[in-house]
Protein 1
Amino acid sequence: MTITITAFERSPDGGKGLARDTRVRWALEEVGQPYEVRLVSFRAMKEPAHLALHPFGQIPTYQEGALAIFETGAIVFHIAEHYPGLLPQDADARARAITWMFAALNTVEPPILELGNARLLERDKPWYAERLPLVEDRVRGRLAPLSTRLGDADWLDGPFSAGDLMMVSVLLRLRASGLLDEYPNLAAYVARGEARPAYNRAFDAQLAVNKAPAG
Ligand SMILES: N[C@@H](CCC(=O)N[C@@H](CS)C(=O)NCC(=O)O)C(=O)O
């Protein structure tokens, strides 16, 4: 069955790979599943046809036969459950890998998004300079324990899993802030993720969309 995902017609990051279709592309590349991409404009994302797929009018979505789902956590979990390569066979190890997916999305990503929003949307506010260090410290509050837990391991719990895919994807959003470099083992962890051939294929595919002449 053909897998179709949606992605921005033009990503606001210009192809840096931070739009969330990259995580889904990466998961599909890791498990070796071909997929098609339907590009959507910001306007189309808010129209009924897309809202039927994604109630919040966002990307990515995922369709496979009669199935239509949204939310990158649910999509990557679905891929990992249905195709081998992203979750261990052992039930306990599998539960721990899933735990890391949730930790990435639910515990680590929120303060990172808050920082991104502050840097992008609040720069002109009179309280920006005063607030920024507070927001950065909330990110450090997640990075420090993550760094301690990772230690000198390559991945969070044994072999690379969907948990690492999600955690690396979330941490990549920090690059512009410089905060990641305060934790050399996390910076190396992210670099290991980025060095995976599947990540590179996913990154190149989204870049090709964003570098294509506007049409
Ligand atoms: N929690 C959602 C977040 C989806 C999301 O924020 N998508 C962004 C692109 S990365 C989007 O569509 N933004 C446009 C908008 O919200 O109007 C997920 O993980 O899929």
Protein 2
Amino acid sequence: MKFSEEQIHRYSRQMILPGIGGKGQRKLAEAKVFIMGAGGLGSPAAIYLAAAGVGTIGLADSDHVEIHNLQRQILHRTCDIGLPKVESGRKTLESLNPEVKVEIYCERVTSTNIQRIIKGYDLVLDGSDNFPTRFLVNDACYFERKTLISGAILRYDGQLSTFKPHAGGPCYRCLCPEPPPPGLVPSCQEAGVLGAVAGIIGLFQANEALKEILGVGQSMVGRFLLFNALNLSFAEMKIQRNPECPLCGENPTIKELIDYTQSCSTQNTVPLQTSTRTLD
Ligand SMILES: [Zn+2]
């Protein structure tokens, strides 16, 4: 693949970076990233991946744009209210970078279609806002051996990790074997979320996706980041593969995908705050 003069201009500020160059830019152009959810996390992630020249971006979301989304879901504009989020998202991404191929899935992602959808992608970003989807995406990525970059937000807090059990790292269930019981963790609808927190965590996801594609820096595999916006503090936990994990452990009990119902719990961040280590 040879770059046009326009492409060289467009990507010049990152192509001069050590670790990118023409070779890295080519890797980005050939990369296919699937984003689950065109909401608070998926919006900033998709925008920055498109701007960076990631060749194919898949966007899945079955919702339509509503006015209360606009406080944080920056793929969408006031004039997009009523449109399917994936349509509105595609419009924004294509106007930012017409070279990017945007594939959209305006359907509920379930155990019956998720493996077919993610099969064609190199990397999965989870920006979903509920536990049933989060577990479904984790399990599908495990079965399809896809790297999963997971983000979650609630109120002023955010969480981030990269799961790569096919390369020896833990999966999401190593951390949280089953969805929490109903009512334990409130949803953003119930508890609220600061838009900027969605932006920060979504961009961390985009940052990790670019690093995974380029093969630069230190991966978030085996690391779990906790962010608090009020103190502007970061904490990091080391996480390991759990031999008793029901999915990727030594005696797995989960052999196929499970559709948990939304009522079993909604949203979002894992209640893990107790055992964190603050970074220096
Ligand atoms: Zn596991």
